Amino acid sequence: MDTKEILKNLTLEEKAALCSGRDFWKTKAIDRLGIPSVMMCDGPHGLRKQEGEGDHLGINESIPTVCYPSASALASSFDREVMTKLGHALGRECQAEDVAMLLGPGMNIKRSPLCGRNFEYFSEDPKVAGEMGAAYIQALQSEGIAACVKHFACNNQETMRMTGDSRVDERTLHEIYLPAFETAVKKGKTRGIMSAYNGVNGSFCTENKTLLTDILRDKWGYEGFVVTDWGAIKDRAASVAAGLDLEMPGGPNATGEELVKAVREGKLSEEALNRSAENVLNFILASIANKKTETIDRDACRAVSREISEECAVLLKNNGVLPLKEEQKVALIGEFAKTPRFQGGGSSHINVPYSVSALEAAEGKNIIFAQGYDTHSDTDSDKLIEEAVIAAEKADVAVIFAGLPDAYETEGADRDHMRMPENQNELIRAVAKINPNTVVVLHGGSVMELPWLNEVSAVLLMHLGGDQVGAATVDLLYGEKNPSGHLAETWSVRLEDNPSYLNFPGEEGVVNYAEGIFVGYRYYDKKKMDVTFPFGYGLSYTTFAYENLRVDKESLTDQDTLIVTVDVKNTGDRTGKALVQLYVRDVESTVRRPVRELRDFAKVELAPGEMKTVSFALDKRAFAYYEPKCKDWFVESGEFAIEIGDSSRNILADRTVQVEGTTVLSFEITANTTIGQLMKHPKGSVFVRQMLGSRMVAHEDMSSSMGEGAERMIQKMMFETPIGSLVSYGRMSAEQLKSLIEQLNN
Ligand code: BGC
Fold this sequence. Notes:
19% strand; Rossmann fold; 24 helices; binds beta-D-glucopyranose; globular; Immunoglobulin-like
């Protein structure tokens, strides 16, 4: 039987039952019609399958399995193949464990480094988040397992996470907070979406018709189903009416009866309930059809986890001390060298039977160890620091493992500050004073202040790198592998520099996204602010050159595709991976735009001396901004720079092209519309040009008496004048103005 047939045979009660879960993790079965129950589980960087009592906070036991690097690490690989590998590994594990859907990936934008779940999110940039997410979704779903992108939308903090209202202007919503989800829908073809706990612009996401129907289904053409975040439901009937399908968790308190009542009382249309039941049924039936028999080799998965962890690491500083040499005596210092922090807390927490520390992985090498600090305390221990200094003194190189302890970042709570524990800062300073070859390995899911950065020789960011992170770290430190990760989030100098600082986390239930589109590097670059490390930054043990940047046309319309090609060459003496970043800059614009925006990227492996050619195809979206006046993407005609860089601050090659926008902006004209605004209106601009023509002589007189630049000033002044004022200035009568407005609006 197909879905439509089944739907016809379902009673009202059964349809409502399908729309809320059976228990914490499963959908309801309808035995009468042979519809089974299917299971969904948390991920996204491992399988958190709970066979006993369920919970959404990472408290109760789940099956012992493999933990992969978390999303903030994964994004730093900037490598779609890494996501593909992970998606396949998790998909096969879900099949083996009889799980139909994995709850992830998390696609929210990193608005502030304080968000407690930043480790679960990819980037401050929507292109990176979207591309990494889409690759993971495609691979996972090719194994027959549904992805469930979360948390839709504007769920960018943990404070007030279940109650807050994110107030975001329309342009910002479309340019920053929605595109990653859009890519997950259009390119990833995700079968599931989880609506967020919070509200957006006055309506909870579970009941937000603008998000769930107008944008998700009507604009993006989404065909999957929408599940609530766990316990997010407020008004059940309103949620179904807005486009939400499944309530989770289910169980005795789920609200199926409310739906039946709402339909009977005429408060909810049966058609809306049918639609939701059909979406849930489609998911269940497809899961059954996609069911495969798999066995899982967890050791092979651990090897994948180690490989991925290596691809994600970012070398932030290196004065040449790295890679280490086998013959060197190395002091491994810090609790994290022995017990690495490799995952975050909360619903994504994976039950790992054992993990590999750097200390274990370095066995057999010339190393000594000192604990250095206690992860359960922030205060210095003179004794631990003294021991570490003694060890560092005896060694050729001191490698300190530091970063954020568990208590510093978790789901459910935002960070209080951006600092590392003070006892770790003290330790690093003390060791760096005694040993000039001091290396710091960092663990953590987000940005940290690094007050000792100038005192150390090298810094390697291992993120929350999964349960094999210790082995990956040793491979990278000793040059078995070459670091190739880049930052998917700007490291600002201080928390106070962050664009959301004055509006995070908001108050009285409201979060104003007042910084608008200027999130992450879009802000820091616009303000030309000093940052510790820019977006896209990352070093390697080799060097790369970017040459011969070319475009297939010098001028195009926004309906054309521009092919951009560049040669990248390994100019060093080790094999390594270059990250080619393509940014687009609107050279001149009448609306506020960031200096540049990342429009594509490619990771390329190169042997010493090897050269490869990389190509990108840019379409309208690469040049457009979201224009609320036409509720669509809009290209303002003019010059655009195509820039290739190895970070948002280091552009190595550029070319300009002329792009002509083909959309005509038409909007309502009133007496208060300025002459400048009229210039953007198809008929208005004709009127302005005629008017300007007749005033040219007068301008020339004025500008010659005012000197250089006067013409521009006069034009600016005129562009700020509302057309209504032309009456006061005696340029036209009130009747003429009225008829002009009518003509223009017609
Ligand atoms: C989290 C989700 C998670 C769900 C189920 C919620 O608290 O926000 O990300 O998938 O619980 O555990």
